[in-house]
Amino acid sequence: MNTGAIRELVRSECLKESNGFGPAFLDEHILPVLRYSRLLAGRLGADTLVVELAAYLHDLSAIRNMSVLPSHHIESARIARQLLDDQGWPAAIRDRVCRVIETHSMPVQPGEGSPEQVWLSNADVVSHFARPAYWCFYLYGVRKFSYEEGLEWWRRRANEAWFALAPEAQALAASDRQTVLHLLDEDSREKRSAE
C-alpha cells in the first residue's frame, strides 16, 4: 500500500471535464494543501501518511460533483472510507484519514483536534493565500460571484479565516496574506485606520 494509487485517482478525477473546479485544481489547490500539510506536520508532530492521504482526498466529492460543496467534507470522508477499504488500508489509518477530512473546512486549533486535523485544516486555508490567481478564477469563473461577493470571500479569508489559523500556519503564510491584502487594498485601509 502506498499513496501513489490515491494520487493517481485524484489526478485523473481533476482532469475530467466534469470537474467544475477545472483541471488546474490539482496543481493550484490539492498539491499546495499537501505541501503545506507536510511542512506543518513535519515540524509539529503529525502522522505524515494520514496527512498525505487526507490532503489528496479532502475535496474529492466536490471534484466529482460541485453540488455537494456545502457538505463536501462529509461526502469526501465517505468516499475516502470506501476507497481506502477497497485498497486494503488498515482500519485505524482509514478512520483517522476520514476524521481529518470531516474537519478540514474550518481551521482546527492545536489542542482542539488531532495534529493531523489541525495541520490539514490550516493548510487548506493557507493554500488560498498561496494561489490567489486560481481562487479569483474559482470565485468569478466557476462560482460566478459578483465582484463584491468575491471581495467579501477574500476579506473573510484574510480576516476571519486568518485569525482562526494556528500561529505556525500564520507564520508560514504571512507574506502571502500580505499580497492578498495588497490586492484587496486592505493593507492601505488598515494603515489609514491606524493613523
Percent helix range: over 70%
Assigned CATH architecture: Orthogonal Bundle
Largest β-sheet summary: none
Count helical runs: 11
CATH topology: Hypothetical protein af1432
- As for the number of domains, it is 1
SSE succession: HHHHHHHHHHH
In short:
The chain has about 200 residues and is an all-alpha fold. About 75% of the residues lie in helices and about 0% in strands. α7 runs antiparallel to α9 (about 145-165) and α9 runs antiparallel to α10 (about 165-185).
Write the layout of secondary structure elements.
Blueprint: H1 4-15, H2 25-44, H3 48-57, H4 60-64, H5 72-86, H6 91-102, H7 115-130, H8 132-142, H9 147-164, H10 167-184, H11 186-194
Helix pairs in contact: 2-3, 2-7, 3-6, 3-7, 5-6, 6-7, 7-9, 7-10, 9-10
Protein model, in words:
The chain is mainly α and 195 residues long. The chain has one domain (4-194): Hypothetical protein af1432 (Orthogonal Bundle), CATH 1.10.3210.10. It is 75% helix and 0% strand. It is built from 11 helices and no strands. The protein has helices spanning 4-15, 25-44, 48-57, 60-64, 72-86, 91-102, 115-130, 132-142, 147-164, 167-184, 186-194. Helix 2 (25-44) packs across helix 7. It is globular, with a radius of gyration of 17 Å. The model has no long low-confidence stretch (mean pLDDT 93).
